[in-house]
Every structure is written in C-alpha cells, then in structure tokens.
Amino acid sequence: MMSVMSQPLPRHIVHPGPVTPERIRAVACHVQPVSLTLSSGCDINGAIARAFSDQGFEGGYVRLKNVPMRRLHYVMPAAAPDDSHAAWYSETHVMHDAVILDAGLHAGERDGKPFLHCHGTWRDADGRIGMGHLLPFEAELRDEMTVEALALVGALLVTRPDAETNFPLFNPEARPAAQHGGGTRAMLATVRPNTDLCHAAEEICRSFSLHEASVHGIGSLVGAEYQDGTTLTAHASELYIQDGKVLQKNSQHEAAIDIAMVDLTGRHSQGLLKRGLNPVCVTAELLLVAPS
Fold it and tell me: pTM for this one?
C-alpha cells in the first residue's frame, strides 16, 4: 500500500462514508500513441469507444483540442443538496455549435460498457467560455476528425461503487494485454480525497521505480494553491492537467503539475500547483508515462 507525506494540508473535506485505507491505487501498464478517427452523428462516448475498439484497444487517455461540436452539455461542481455527498453537480448547461478548446478525457468502462470521463474548457457560438464536466451521452461532434491518444495496454479504468464518497468512481484494474505487446511503460492510478496531488504523483514514481514521468489526467481539488500566490478556498472543483511531469532532483522526485480548473463559485483558474498544498476533493485519475 502506498503512503504519502503526512504534513498537514491547508484544507480538508469530509465525505459521508468510511475512509478507505488505500489512498493511492496504481496499476502498471503500457501505452501506445494512436491516432483516433472520431465519427460524427453519434455521441462522443460512442465515437471514442468505437475509435479505440477499431484499433483493438479498450480505452485510454485523450487530449481534445479545438474540437467542433454540434451540441455539448456539461455540468460544474456545486454544493451538495444534502449530507449524502460532500459535493454535487450544477444544473446542466447546454451549448450548440460549440468548440472544445482543451480537455482531458479518460476512456474506460462502466457496467460492462465503454464510458468516458472528461473535464475541459469550451466556447459557444457567441464566444462565451465554459468549463466543467462533459456529459458524454449528450455531446456530439460536428464533423469527423482525428485526435491523438494514449491507448492503454494491460490496464483500464473501471467504474465501481465507492463507499467513502458515495459516488461511482473510476478505479484502475489490470486487464489482459490481448494482441498488443510492447509500448511505453506507464502507471494508471487514482488518488483518494485529502491526498496532495503532487505528492501522490511523486509517490507513484517512487513506488514503481520511475525516475521521471509525464503526468496526464483529470480530477478535483479542495480549493487550490498556485505557485503565483493565488489561493482559492471553494471546496469542490473540476480540473484537467494542462502539463504535468515528475522529475528527479537531488535523488528526490518532484512533481510540476499545471492545471486548468473551475470551482463551485464558477471561477475559472489555471496555473502551476504548489507541492504539498493541494488536497484531492473526490478523486484524481492519473496516467503517468515513462520517457519512451
């Protein structure tokens, strides 16, 4: 079981269920860079699942940039309406003829079927910017297009009930490698609430003897502490990693994770996180990839 540094964090969230002892779960795997051709005329969940399947993969991580959408529905973080959850979702926001400007997307499985989890930034036809959690069955591409992805070999994110948060959450699970072999060494991981995001990435690298890694993924934080001195205190957010890496400095791992985030006040922010001061709110889903 992986442990993380125990220094006090500036903020803390209390979830309704028992605290899970395992604060980081990671599964060794490999990734293969692939180009995915996404079809229009269906929801984005089906388009991405089919594109991975056509190349013999169950899923992976996709970075979406400048993707035109016929329709796009999303939600933002919000306060929970009762004590069954520590945070919840806003009403649904709807955009037509929008563009996904930048987003991180994990393609995995829920109830035995393909399912994706996506956080990002988008712009509607009138130029208004939105951020949040994409609703995968209510989002449709405008045109067929090609996107770049990291296909997973030997692991997949699978949705399971989570007693601590009372949400169904992605968890990394080992999968048969099927016909695919080789690829670049990687770790598929999830991070539990009240665990510092940077320290978690560093601990994954230490535990699995990765000297350095690029860090990809999405998640949520309890407020945020940025390197530029900005402090945010809203207790729930949706974020995606714009650029992330773990390097070794003086025989110590050190993470540099640059995020874009919207919190439950509707504030948009971005920047490099301060190490040791940014606790996860509900979950963080990470893919750490060793140098090829």
Answer: 0.96
